[in-house]
Design goal:
This protein has 276 residues and is mainly α. It has 13 helices and no strands.
Length: 276
Amino acid sequence: MPGRPASGEGEARPSAVKDLFTGVGYLLRGIGWTARHPAQWLFGLIPALIVLAAYAAALVTLAFYLGDLAGWVTPFADGWSDAARAATRVVAGIAIYGAAVFLAVLTFTAVTLLVGDPFYEAIAVRVEESQGGAPPDPDVPLMVQIGRAIKDALALGLVAVLFAVVFFAAGFLPVVGQTVVPVIAALVSGYYLAGELTSIALERRGLLRKERFARLKANRSLSVGFGAATFVVFLIPLGAVFAMPGAVAGATLLARERLADGPGITGGRPGVATAN
């Protein structure tokens, strides 16, 4: 009949919403796992604290020069009235700092995973073992693995810069720039965060960046739910540090149970995913 949704369309939306919440659940499960394994949680804090110190110094420095930067990007407002010029530069300052925070949150994970690769690899293996068994170490030379990690981090950094520029410009839009744009930024960054955090478990299964993101795309709602929840937690002061080990654990569970294929890839018994 005219106006009737196509077959399957009605079921697709509830399924997508369900997957969003399921993705959030994986983050909570990962945090719960680290709560039950406090030694692993403390172990995973070390690289996150190192990277946090560097990022905090950069953001504090930016805050000191924010007024000058806001004036530099809005020279067109020099001849305006004091109130209009001040309002424009406040918006510019918010947009600049918001873009910087977005860039920091999105690249924090990649840089922390790069710096703390041995730490988070060990946590991921422990998570896999608690679920029935970890895949064997990939038969790839260490230098090749490091080269791939650096290449992936640079690729993500480029994507982050491009999105930061877009969201910075969109931040000038009245109302929309302060409401809709932050939500879109959280969803976009969440998707890429999910890609970075699941990389440890998926690389052990022989999946490179292109293949990993193909899996994420096929499970977009699930990936965005997990990643956006992680993004929001990372925005909380020190959230990125304290939640990082749990995010890695949750991403490992997500990769193992939903993104990997077949018994040879899951690392556990065929068709079995334990609930621990």
